[in-house]
Design a protein that fits this description.
about 375 residues; 6-stranded mixed beta sheet; transferase
């Protein structure tokens, strides 16, 4: 448990439109990932493993399934009598009901919730990234630097810098400049959207930002640049482990495939840093006598009679005899009929691939998203 009073605020209302039919009915943080998890499980598990006791989940876009998954937070040990986990959707005020207008506005609208917990620090998190991080390390650096805010950053490939908010620092890692998706970046340190604030400072700037009619009410566009302009002590903490923004179909497929790489540092079998999720209470998997399974994750209630290679199978999936699955992610409750072949695909829930059907080829560079709306090629 953290010795200092830290409240985490997890932004989990994203639509994730670039994930196409994966998010047509659910929010991006609720998208299934890694065979048995949902994307939000990683931030929630990081929080509980880091010793954070109080967390607010800010929901917005199609929250029903996400809210059902989270419940009262018991799967992550947040079901406490005092504090614990609280789901914070947009609500009706004297000005009427509205959605959160930006990331900063989402926190501003819940100032009373945070004040009631009286924290010294507030940790802002995103619910749509895949990574494992001890937030205590971020807090330690924040305190050592006597900072007003500390931002977790990650070195990204130079060719990807135009997709991120880039942070320029001095030799002591003190932030001196922000570049929002620059064409020609000065360095490759990208913000991860993870911020440790002194609550007193953040509260002040949230109120000022709300009074600014020209503000986008966004951390990256408004709060952080304003604090920098005012000379606040702002530092970067460099994260050097696995992190993935699964914002596109290809990156989602790649992140699932990364789990099958023996060199990948996102170790799901680390008993000292478990990734927790809601248990479905399903029966064991069944692997038939003449089936072939190589380098794959096969989860509960699967019945495999065919061939599965380098793939991730979620729960309650049927792979019939002579069916072949390669380099694919198959979500729950799917049936792959006899003689069908699936390559480089992401297949959504409750889909049946009929007898003899063929999707992609082994050496194909395309990714195939299969849903009840058809096949989308990425």
């Amino acid at each position: 448990m953290m010795d200092d009073k830290v409240v985490a605020m997890l932004l989990a209302g994203g639509q994730g439109s670039r994930l196409k039919t994966l998010t047509s009915k659910i929010a991006k943080p609720a998208v299934p990932f890694g065979g048995k998890y949902r994307i939000i499980d990683y931030a929630l598990s990081n929080a509980t493993n880091s010793g954070i006791r109080d967390i607010g989940i800010l929901t917005q876009y199609k929250p029903f399934l996400l809210n059902s998954h989270i419940g009262i937070g018991s799967s992550w040990d947040f079901d406490r009598t005092f504090g614990g986990l609280k789901i914070l959707p947009p609500f009706t005020s004297e000005d009427g009901g509205r959605w959160y207008t930006g990331t900063a506005n989402a926190i501003y609208e819940n100032i009373d919730f945070i004040d009631n917990l009286a924290p010294e620090y507030v940790l802002i998190l995103s619910g749509d990234h895949i990574y494992k991080m001890n937030y205590q390390h971020l807090l330690d650096v924040h305190k050592e630097n006597n900072a007003n805010v500390t931002i977790s950053v990650l070195e990204v490939p130079w060719e990807d810098t135009s997709r991120f908010g880039i942070i320029n620092v001095d030799r002591d890692k003190r932030i001196i400049e922000f570049e929002e998706k620059p064409e020609n970046a000065k360095n490759n340190m990208a913000s991860m959207g993870i911020y440790m604030f002194n609550w007193k400072d953040l509260r002040e700037y949230l109120i000022k930002d709300n009074e600014d009619e020209n503000s986008s009410n966004d951390f990256g566009k408004n709060i952080l640049p304003k604090m920098l302009d005012d000379g606040k002590r702002m530092y970067a903490w460099v994260f050097e482990d696995y992190w993935k923004d699964v914002g596109t179909i290809r990156s989602y497929w790649e992140a699932n495939m990364d789990l099958l790489d023996e060199k990948n540092t996102l170790n799901l079998y680390d008993r000292d840093w478990r990734i927790y999720t809601k248990n479905k209470n399903l029966p064991p998997q069944h692997i038939a006598k003449n089936s072939i399974i190589k380098n794959s994750l096969v989860n509960e209630a699967c019945d495999v009679k065919g061939e599965v290679k380098n793939s991730v199978l979620f729960s309650n999936i049927v792979i019939e005899k002579d069916a072949k699955i390669n380099n694919s992610v198959i979500l729950s409750n799917c049936v792959i009929r006899s003689g069908a072949e699936v390559n480089n695909a992401v297949i959504l829930e409750d889909i049946t691939i009929e007898v003899g059907s063929k999707i992609g080829t082994k050496n194909d560079d395309n990714i195939y998203l299969v849903s009840d709306e058809g096949i989308l090629i990425e």
